[in-house]
Design brief:
Elements: H1 6-24, H2 28-47, H3 49-60, H4 66-88, H5 91-97, E1 101-103, H6 106-116, E2 120-124, H7 132-139, E3 144-148, H8 154-167, E4 171-173, H9 176-187, E5 191-195, E6 204-208, E7 211-215, H10 218-225, E8 230-237, E9 244-248, H11 257-274
Parallel strand pairs: 1-9, 2-5, 2-8, 3-4, 3-5
Antiparallel strand pairs: 6-7, 8-9
Helix pairs in contact: 1-2, 2-4, 3-4, 5-7, 10-11
């Protein structure tokens, strides 16, 4: 791939900053709905979201009819926009998180780990809100770190990381340093959230929607290494678009990293199939759908 275009990066960043600043001037509920609508109706078509979503759906769920595909395209993009402004809403989002409904068989395990000072590995995906579970548990007194993938646009990344930190610290950038810092946090009895549903080139060849999907096994490896429960957690958006239900599932039984990671994929797939319009179908999850970049052929003599 070629070098990034700094002018384009800066233009995108300034546009995003302007939209975020405008939205933050509004009351919380209005801003979440506004940015969701802007993303669904204006940004998504311009950014090519619908094409990406359709490509992923055609590959994973070819049985879907056209009306359902159109609905999913619209609502997925709306959810992406809502997630963005929720992240940037910081203190307002944390205050709202106090009202989120937190249930599930993993809650008792989580409380026991907290009381014992034992580390916990949360695994989740880009469904509903990936920040809502962290905000809800922080509101209940838990200290939870999160590992994140830095944005490819460096101008945007700087304030995005600051927004993540406003919801809660510590944050760990994916990479050697971030991994080392996260390991030390876990050793001290910390709790860490990991989003485990994006393509990773050196990930294991596991299945998702019955298709080969490169999947990182590091979450399971750390759970085994530190004797930490590996707990799937999902923040699912309610019909009103503003509120959430937090589902803390029973821990994945310790066995080996491949088996545990496949079970996470299966559990995530179950959630996605039940809430098709809440997963980030804009991500290129499967290697078969990743764009192939080829070196230009040498000029002929």
């Amino acid at each position: 791939m070629g070098k990034r275009n700094r002018f384009i990066d800066r233009t995108v960043d300034l546009s995003a900053r302007a939209i975020i600043a405008m939205a933050l001037a509004l009351p919380y509920r209005k801003r979440v709905n506004l940015v969701g609508a802007l993303t669904a109706n204006i940004i998504a078509p311009l950014a090519g979201f619908n094409t990406r979503i359709r490509t992923q759906l055609a590959y994973a769920c070819p049985e879907l009819d056209e009306p359902e595909i159109k609905r999913i395209c619209k609502e997925v993009s709306r959810n992406v926009g809502r997630n963005l402004i929720e992240t940037y809403s910081g203190n307002d989002f944390k205050t709202h998180a106090k009202s989120f409904n937190v249930t599930g068989p993993g809650l008792a395990v989580l409380e026991a780990a907290k009381d014992a000072g034992k580390p916990v590995i949360f695994v989740s995906g880009h469904i509903g809100s990936y920040d809502a579970p962290r905000a809800a548990l922080i509101a209940q007194g838990y200290r939870i770190g999160v590992i994140y993938k830095p944005m490819s646009n460096p101008a945007f990344n700087s304030h995005y990381v600051a927004a993540l930190s406003t919801i809660g610290d510590p944050t760990f950038a994916r990479g050697r340093k971030g991994l080392g810092d996260m390991m030390r946090f876990l050793k001290s009895g910390g709790m860490v959230g990991i989003l485990n549903d994006q393509h990773l080139g050196h990930g294991a060849d596991l299945l998702f929607f019955g298709k080969p999907a490169k999947t990182p096994t590091s979450a399971a490896e750390m759970a085994l290494r530190y004797d930490a429960p590996m707990i799937p957690i999902f923040g699912l958006r309610r019909e009103n678009g503003i509120d959430f239900d937090m589902h803390i599932q029973a821990p994945i039984a310790p066995s080996d990293a491949l088996t545990m990671t496949q079970e996470f994929n299966d559990r995530l797939e179950e959630q996605v199939r039940a809430h098709m319009d809440q997963w980030f179908w804009i991500h290129r999850r499967w290697a078969a759908l990743k764009p192939k970049y080829k070196k230009p052929a040498p000029d002929a003599d």
